[in-house]
């Protein structure tokens, strides 16, 4: 087995990003396993692995990773959104709805608002906030 060091982990992380972008989520997971084994506290690597699990339709591992990210970063809107998509895909709409709403509340991006069923534009007769 080749020697690993911090630079190797960075290279593996970047390669995993590329594999995920190239639609090889299982390859990305393999690379990230060693990165996370060496750096279990690395939330970015866990979030990337969660995305790779989701892309590979491994919904339970994706759910567990997204939840772990949210334990460490409860204000991570993307992790809430992605966990909601995971729940949605797993046929758990009530759990999905909760996380879609949290994502939209944390970051009012149009896709988060739409998923949470919030209006993107407020009615014209609503007074502005002061």
UniProtKB/TrEMBL annotation:
Entry-linked Pfam families: TPR_19, TPR_2
Chain segments annotated as transmembrane: none
TPR repeats: 77-110
Protein's UniProt keywords contain Repeat: yes
Protein name in the entry: Tetratricopeptide repeat protein
Keywords, alphabetical: Repeat, TPR repeat
Species whose genome carries this gene: Streptomyces lavendofoliae
InterPro entries: TPR-like_helical_dom_sf (IPR011990), TPR_2 (IPR013105), TPR_rpt (IPR019734)
């Amino acid at each position: 087995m080749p020697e690993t060091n911090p630079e190797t982990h960075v290279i593996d992380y970047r390669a995993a990003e590329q594999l995920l972008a190239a639609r090889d989520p299982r390859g990305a997971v393999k690379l990230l396993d060693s990165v996370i084994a060496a750096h279990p506290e690395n939330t970015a690597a866990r979030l990337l692995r969660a995305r790779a699990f989701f892309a590979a339709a491994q919904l339970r591992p994706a759910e567990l990773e997204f939840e772990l990210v949210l334990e460490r970063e409860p204000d991570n809107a993307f992790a809430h959104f992605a966990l909601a998509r995971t729940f949605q895909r797993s046929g758990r709409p009530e759990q999905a709805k909760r996380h879609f709403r949290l994502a939209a509340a944390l970051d009012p991006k149009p896709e988060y608002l739409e998923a949470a069923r919030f209006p993107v534009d407020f009615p014209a007769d609503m007074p502005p906030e002061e």
